[in-house]
Amino acid sequence: MTATIALPAPAAARRRATAEPVAVRGLLIGIALTFLGVFLLVPLAAVFTEALRRGAQVYFAALTEPDAWAAIKLTLLVAGIAVPANLIFGVAAAWAIAKFEFKGKSVLTTLIDLPFAVSPVVSGLIYVLMFGLQGWFGPWLHAHDIKIIFAVPGIVLATIFVTFPFVARELIPLMQAQGSEEEEAARVLGASGWQLLWRVTLPNIKWGLLYGVILCNARAMGEFGAVSVVSGHIRGSTNTMPLYVEILYNEYHFAAAFAVASLLASLALVTLVVKSLVEWKTRPEEALADASPEHG
Amino acid sequence: MRWQWREPSVLPGFGLAFGYTILYLSLIVLIPVSATFFKTFTLTWGAFWDTVTAPRVLASLRLTFGASLVAALVNSVFGLLVAWVLVRYRFPGRRIIDALVDLPFALPTAVAGIALTAVYAANGWIGRIIEPIGIKVAFTPLGVIVALTFIGLPFVVRTVQPVLEDLEPELEEAAATLGANRWQTFRRVIFPAVWPALLTGFTLAVARAVGEYGSVIFIAGNVPMVSEITPLLIITKLEQYDYAGATAIAVVMLVISFALLLLINLLQWWAGRRLAKI
């Protein structure tokens, strides 16, 4: 029995003074996981179980419905316009803000962030007040038979507004951190402006760009409030997928609503996977830290 | 020396990039937002005031702000805990959990709304357990809080996490050497360092929650004066062709959003300065 005294103390007793006892650790991990489980995992799982509740046949029937197809196509179209538009803006804004010093820069960055602070419903409303029949340009548009509100252009505009800052706010800090030395060197060696952009800057920022585009796309395809205000909910023509989910749900077609919702949830999961891959790619120190068994 | 608006640079393209930025920002954001403010000027001050102080509007503002604050508080407590667990401990599945924290950013709000309603309804997975003990979530103001907690969850975690990661272990070692136990170290050393980030995350969560629409309307029940949020009231007014009323409420929301945005900028500036000092 006395032999055990000579042995080193068990791992738990050897803990460092800057670590918590194992029991406290376990408790904290348990509470955190329960919270995330209740608020994140359970609702996520509910989407897929509710979608498949009536069997695979009902599920696929709901997705091959012509109205569902129209909604999917419109969603892809809207994201296909809004994401590239904000991508070009994001690169231009980041180039101006990160590579040059000028007065009023912080005001400009705050203004770019503005759409994030505005309620989606208000984002939709501002375009109704611009282009709706009661709006500033309404009578003129009506006279020329151009429809923006309750039509696809309004949906595109509202989507561009709510996804406005995504690419820019991802690129600005990244390009600021990278500095301008490489571009200046290329310039001295005789590169033109576009050559700089294509050969030096874009390769340097490609991961940050992808990150911004992925988040921008997820929001563009999933936007509900802003689009709801400007769409007019015309079945088969101005319903995006989230709006179609709402209509099905309010008509008590729960299985069909969750079937379309499950597509959007899958999109969200793909977004998270790509996002994690990009983070992993751009933060190798995180991967290294993971290899060591304990931290702090 | 001549006053210069912009410092000279050898890099090309400032004019094009800056010009396009300003043009696009003006067309998409600045002109439509200011047009909304101008639209309210078509209302007399009295009419504006009567609209925004109507009992139904005030009730919706109370609910929206009350629920947003409660949800952000819940997220501050649990978000700090989640960030701590993710940064400090290693356990199986940590990477997946870490990625999953961003789910509320990626999941469309309408999907979140119907999913939460399904889970918390009387026959749902969680509703089935808590309704018999007298807690009704779906179709009550409590449902609003649950939806806003879901929506605001990533904000606190993602603002606190990097600060915890960068915290120097020497600080805690010094505290331990001086005889502090873990709780004292947390309260006196770690928490003061994390506090500005926590407050920033809290404000971001409030700002997001105040305007939230999609995830709330399915679970809230939307009873006027009881569980009707302000963004929904704007939509209701629009559907009744009451454009002036909708605009008046929207302007109140916009002013609140701007105030919160300003507050967030100040907080981040303050947090950055404090961190630099530590």
Concise description?
The complex is a heterodimer of chains A (296) and B (278). In chain A, helix 4 (66-99) packs across helix 8 and helix 13 (241-250) runs antiparallel to helix 14 (254-282). Chain A has helices at residues 3-6, 22-52, 56-64, 66-99, 105-117, 120-131, 138-143, 152-162, 166-178, 181-188, 193-222, 225-231, 241-250, 254-282, 284-291.
Describe the protein in words:
With 296 residues, chain A is mostly helical. Chain A has 2 domains: 34 residues; 237 residues, MetI-like fold. Chain A is 76% helix and 0% strand. Chain A is built from 15 helices and no strands. In chain A, helix 4 packs across helix 8. Chain A starts with a helix and ends in a 5-residue tail after the last helix. The N terminus and C terminus of chain A are likely disordered. By secondary structure, chain B is mostly helical. Chain B has one domain: MetI-like fold (Orthogonal Bundle), CATH 1.10.3720. Chain B is built from 13 helices and no strands. The chains are: A mainly alpha (296), B mainly alpha (278). Chains A and B meet through helix 2, helix 4, helix 5, helix 6 and helix 8 of A and helix 1, helix 3, helix 4, helix 5 and helix 6 of B.
